[in-house]
Amino acid sequence: MKRNILTSIISSTILFSSVASADISNNNAQTNSIYDGLITNSIEISNNVYPEIVMFGFNGYICTGTFVDSNTILTAGHCAASSEYNPNNIEVLTGEAKGQSPSNVYVHPNYNDSNWHGTYQYDLAVLKFDSPVSSSYRALAPQSARAVAQQRAAIIGFGNNNQVTKTGAGVKRLGIATVSYVDGAMIYAYGHDGNSGSNQDWTRGTSLTGGGDSGGPIFAAQGILGVTSGGSVGSAFWVDIHSNASKAFLNQYIQ
């Protein structure tokens, strides 16, 4: 099982989505990923559902992030690395903080944007705002609720909804993933990629991630378990927030 997962990761890709800003409202964003996709086997939801989970833009791309308190977004490192020294590159596109930019961007010091395949286990970033901008937020799960194999957990993102025409990014979708394996640094899921398009039968199989879903959460009732880093056809993986490397970084910025 572990061997199959690691084999798929070799050919995997990061999952932010390329977008012309004018196209967001028409759901015509396009991805530059070789594996175009969405949260497959998912349902389309309103931006008012799970409002703490938001879409943001940076340098012509979109990603997903989660408010973990009123002025802090947790997301993927590759969604923020290019903006670490220029937070104004980032703009929140949905939710109460729509139109706002963070005052500071912090990327895990061990994450290397030019070597994502070698450092994706550190693919975390925190976006900080000077004052409270969101009344909705989601806590990190406690250590006692760390992700385990065969667990069913929710995932949300704003990725593409068609793998062929590469359209539809900017729509919020909810899916349920079945955790396949947890190795101490990452959470993995694999299975059939599902049908393109929203509102598939998400009660069966597993939901996976695609272009535009990077930085989004995998979460359970107790809180956030991990952060979407990447995926491939038939697989998805998240940074485990309870790995030693994750905790050392997150404890500096999230109380």
Question: Could you please describe the fold and organization of this structure?
Answer:
With 255 residues, this protein is mostly beta strands. 9% of the residues lie in helices and 30% in strands. Strands 1, 3, 10, 11, 12, 13, 14, 15 and 16 form a 9-stranded antiparallel β-sheet that branches. Strands 2, 4, 5, 6, 7, 8 and 9 form a 7-stranded antiparallel β-sheet that branches. Mean pLDDT is 79; it is low at 1-11, 18-38 and 193-204.
Kindly state the percentage of residues in helix.
under 10%
Oligomer: single chain
Q: Which percent range describes the beta-strand content? A: 25-35%
Structural class: mainly beta
Q: Largest beta sheet, briefly? A: 9 strands, antiparallel
Computed Rg:
16 Å
- Mean model confidence by pLDDT: 79
Number of DSSP helical runs: 3
Count of DSSP strands = 16
Q: What is the terminal-to-terminal distance?
A: 36 Å
| Low-pLDDT windows of residues | 1-11, 18-38, 193-204
The outline comes out as globular
SSE pattern: HEEEEEEEEHEEEEEEEEH
Short description:
With 255 residues, this protein is mainly beta. The protein is built from three helices and 16 strands. The chain has helices spanning 2-10, 116-119, 244-253, and strands at residues 13-14, 17-18, 42-44, 53-58, 61-69, 72-75, 90-92, 104-107, 125-128, 152-157, 173-178, 181-182, 186-190, 217-220, 223-232, 235-240.
